[in-house]
What does this fold into?
Amino acid sequence: MARYLRPETLFFLLVWVLLLLAFRERGFWDPGSLWHIKVGEIILTQGMPQTDPFSYTFENKPWVPQQWGSEVLMALTHRMGGFDTMLLAFSTGVALLFTMIFRRCIVAPTSDVPGTTIGGGMGPMLAALLVGGCLLVGAFHYYVRPHMFTIVFLGWTMMCVIDYERGWCSIWRLVWLIPLYVLWTNLHGGVLGGTMTLGLAVAGWGVLFLIGRARNTVKKLVRGKKNGLAVMFLIGRAQNATPIQNWRTAWLLVGIVVACLLTPLVNAHGLKMLDIWYRLLVSKVMPNVISEHKPLDVTSETGIIIIAMGIFYLALLLGTLPKWPRLSWLIPLVWLLLTFKSIRQGPLFAITAAVCIADMWRYTCWHRYLVKNGDGSLAWNPEDDPARLATVRNGYRWWVIPAVVVLLAFKLQIARVPVPLIGHGWVRMDTNEVPVDLNDAVHAYAASVPPGTRIFNDLDLGGYMIYYAPSLKIFMDDRCELYGDDMLQEYVDAIRASPEDFGVTFEGWQAKWGFERVIITSNPPDEAKPNNGKSNREVYFLAHPERWREIARGKRAVMFERIR
It folds into this structure.
């Protein structure tokens, strides 16, 4: 039994259960968690859409699903077991990713590689604490949607970079990133982040290789000079810090990076995909509309947590001095800087930092201190304890019990057996984020009008309407690449205007598009805020009962009907 019940087993099950609990509602807060399913269903039943199937504002305008692979997988998973199986896949994938990092914290690689040093060196308790902390830092942006593939694949890319840098794997591990990136391209646009990470590593190794190549020249220049030994010492350390030892390896790595850079061309939409990515990257309006694209607010709870992790990571990195730090350990700092520009990059900083922490731990002064003054439960030197090392490495059957539990949960869900946590009916929508308490009113209206009837909705409610009222045509949703900066800016200006100024713009939309129903977000009453917490949009509708009548109200949204 000891072969199957390992620290990795317990860590996986703990993380898995906590994810099922924590993301029971939260996992579906993002509108994309809903509309991506519908896109996948369209692809499976009708083929790849080429025009917008959901809105009337851009009806029949060119649009292709850039994340089509993820959407098909989400639709298939939804068919099998509904939201419960989607949450199961999400929780299992995240738990597996962080269990791999947890195992690397204890020891890496899983078998001896001649000529290399052993990594890891944490005790299970400390490894669980640090890896769990990294998971917590990035979890603010975890939702059941395609972006999760980027987090997983970037974590794997970082592991490959470190393993190759340490000599634990051959260059073929990096070659296999090429087909992985082709898959990644068709799942989520975050593949560009993977290529950037690999490219930074190879570029850094190349610079160190060139410095090392200059050794002989520098020898001649500094021979006999006062600082000659110091210069030679630094050059020697630089050469030892790179896995590139010859030009053949250098050019092979450059070829791999170039191939990965070209993988976005291998997609179902050709150059259209690249155009979509470009428009999203250069958009000046999207950060004002979509919260996850906004710059990091260092005073917010999320900002404080990320800054705290950044400080912690820097403390570990500085703890490796005066030894020459490995280049891969600097990559998370790049993601940290990018997080200041867009909070969306926060989880990518967290996952790359987690992988690097597992690798750098043995080289820190903190590790040496705990080994010297501790009992081995928090830190240890694998070379000094061969018996423990053998026991840890022989725990490769840790996955058996988790696999049985996950398969049991999957079986219960597809059989529609209601069991708490792992069975059917566990997932529920949070009415504070997804207005399912308005489903009756929405369904009643959809049933009373012809398919294709138009309704005005807030951007954040587009995903809800697409999923729960697919027969209605919506005003807009969060597919920013479709609506473009002009419409997004018009929408932002309208919702931020005074009630009467909003009314002028809104009534113009009504005259143009002819919708008779409106569903907008509503806020809980708050006497400390203007208008008791009501948005200017809601204030406008309530102030004009001669034109708009309230039909239904929930925690998250309110519906109005036009009076003719």
About this structure: The beta strands are 107-108, 119-120, 455-457, 517-521, 548-553, 557-562.
